[in-house]
Amino acid sequence: MENSQTGVSYKRADASYFEKRGLSRYAGVWSLWALGVGAVVSGHFSGWNFGFATGGWGGMLVAGIIIAIMYLGLTFSIAEMSPALPHTGAAYSFARTAMGPWGGFLTGLCENVEYVLTPAVIVTFITAYVNSILGLDPVYSPLLWILFYAIFLGLNIFGLELSFKVTLIITLISLAVLVFFWISAIPNMDFSRWALNIGVGPDGAAVELPEGGGDWFPFGFSGVLATLPFAVWLFLAIEQLPLAAEESVDPKRDMPKGIILGIITLMISAFMIVLLNPSLPGVGAFQLSTSLEPLLDGFKSIYGDSGVVILGLVALTGLIASFHTILYAQGRQVYSLSRAGYFPTVLSLTHSRFRTPHVAMLTGAIVGLAVMLVIWFSLGAETGGSIIGSVLLNMAVFGAMFSYIMQAISFILLRKKLPNIERPFRSPLGIPGAVLTIIIAVVTLLYQVQDPNFSKGVVWVAVWFAVAIAYFALVGRHRLILSPEEEFAMEHGKKAAAAEAAALKA
């Protein structure tokens, strides 16, 4: 079936096609909440702290507030779109309905970069924690990466119910660890001495102030803007929740609740960690600006080195929660694009017994590991090990920002093109909230380009985009399948066109 307006061809798949790609429904409100919070919570354990080097404490705080506003606009938009279009494709399916097959594919491609690379970022932080706890030589880090991927791919593949139970348990444990840290840190904090111990050196770079008492904004407002990409790590991946739409028991009721509860939880946690972690004696914002294990540093400050193994294991929980949940999202994201024919359809096969997209998860994991190993060996183990987290973080945030822009545009277009579709939830921020999301995401991208580690990774993102777009242009667009989200988009697209034609005649 050829669609001359969009330049794509569809075929109707028989029942056996979808039988081999079936999913099971299990998730309720709290499972969805745990999926969203669990995906993000590692960003409160590691990664966000690099922003102290570009903005100081005040810059990090204000950047966090700006990014929180962006995520409020995004999550409210998603909370409206996801129950209205309850498909596993999430961002891709929103954009497909709003902007056609090419818009859907490009949005899915941006999100694909985010979900393939974010687990790779997190596993570098997990490995750094393990090396610190056990005193291992970092040269063996790639073996630990492979081990952690194998363990958590197994948990994700061998049953949806098991995966969601593990997600809920480790998310609750992670939040309990954070609350325990806050309670422990408050009596020990010395904000002015330690959180404000960053100044500006002659070369414009951050320097340590031995007595603290520095400016809140040592790098001025430009430092706030330069810190935006790092503040994203406090909320990155909350938007993955709609990928569970076809595994949710009642997505129209539960999805908005799960998303909104999730973003509120994360905003509280983000403020507490930004305030307390750098305020501890012997830690400080300057030291944290280069630390791969900031929460562990905080625990050591309070409890000393005597219990470092136990404290390290405790501090690992958040990283493990996010690694597990984003592997889940990675599998569903690749699965949805594959089931509709945008990626090779073999990637959407589900396990005959467990009904999980094991092929998609394994393929995404192999690609993520391959990227890590290329960086590791091309730069040398010592150099690669020290910057791999930052390079991969920049690549993941780059894909995420473009995805957010496309989702916000989709929200605006759906409000205009399909005003009458059922919307169980309506965003209180409406179109202005989506516009604000676009503006902040664009500014974040502009400042991300100025990060010297950005260029090391963005070239490879561009290569992946070029290869995938060439594949879709030459092959994929002629092999699309009428999956649920594609049928929904085509049906409502015809209705929208008919309504527009009627309005023009009138």
Descriptive notes:
With 506 residues, the chain is an all-alpha fold. It has one domain (2-505): Amino acid/polyamine transporter I, CATH 1.20.1740.10. The chain has helices at residues 15-19, 29-40, 52-84, 91-134, 141-157, 160-185, 191-195, 220-231, 251-276, 284-288, 294-303, 308-339, 358-379, 381-417, 430-448, 454-474, 484-505; strands at 2-3, 8-11, 198-200, 206-208, 480-481. The protein is globular, with a radius of gyration of 22 Å. The model has no long low-confidence stretch (mean pLDDT 86). The chain crosses the membrane at residues 26-45, 57-79, 140-159, 166-186, 216-238, 259-288, 308-329, 359-379, 391-414, 426-446, 458-475.
Uncertain segments are none
- Judging by the overall fold, what is the CATH architecture? Up-down Bundle
- Share of helical residues: 55-70%
With strands numbered from the N-terminus, the spatial order across the biggest sheet is: 1-2-5
What spatial form do the alpha-carbon principal axes imply?
Answer: globular
Count of DSSP H/I helices: 17
Overall pLDDT metric: 86
Radius of gyration: 22 Å
In whole angstroms, how far apart are the ends?
A: 32 Å
Along the chain, the helix and strand elements come as: EEHHHHHHHEEHHHHHHHHHEH
